[in-house]
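Catalogue entry: protein

Sequence with per-residue tokens
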Amino acid sequence: MVDDIKKTSHTGGLGWSISRYDKFLNCKRQYFYDYYAKFDNDVSFEKIQFLKSLTSKALEVGNIVHDVIRDMLKRYQISTKPLNKSKFFKYSFDVTKKYCNSKTFFEHYYYKEVVSAYDVYEKIEMILKKFLDSARFEWIEKNAIYQSSKWIIEPKNFGETWINGCKFFCKVDFLFPIGDKICIIDWKTGKPDEEKHSRQLTGYSLWANCHFNKEAYDIIPMIVYLHPQYREKNVKIENDAITEFTNTVLNETENMCRYLVDIEKNIPKVKLEFPLTNNVFFCKYCNYKEICAKN
């Protein structure tokens, strides 16, 4: 097993995560803007940060559903009373209005589409209703809440862990005990991506192996698809898979480090060393299309 993983507080510097490495693979120029904006000599840091902050309807649906479920679970850690569904949906709509009114949407900024909280909430309400109708929610409310003091809901420091001197992040949405085992749930509102999500499940197992000293067979990582239909997917993780994933993290971290001039200080090469993607479809939905040399 991975004996040389050590826990630490959140620190600076390059850290591996599935989402970060996906951006690195998809478009290295977007990756540069996301993580190294202050090193751009052509575009102001403020402009890049503004474009980075653009949200989308699909992204905001996922953000709000995650946050509402997170707040509901934290509420169960305070009170075991059954959920008042009327108040729950009012709260979810209030959160939707707050988020939508405080953010700039990609669809509006680039295509002048009017995006209202009501438009976004229509899908959110549908997803949350499916969740409340699921056997998992019934199980949480009738059984799991009695061990709510042992729940971990979106851990602090984004699930930061270290492997052989390399930092990686694996932030679980919801972790709870089932007997002497632990179950980890990750909520998904978008399209299923079997390969990517299976990698995430293995990453959660590595994280739990480190922080809870659990063997692979004692960890039940699960992806919960909330849309279009409620569906749970769990993958049996073997110890060999965790070891292999560890090597993947180290190799992919090394790949990203090749684009740095100072690894210790996480200082990148010049922007031109981060090539543009050839995927025009990917460019169409990129937040940085306004400043990208391709446009």
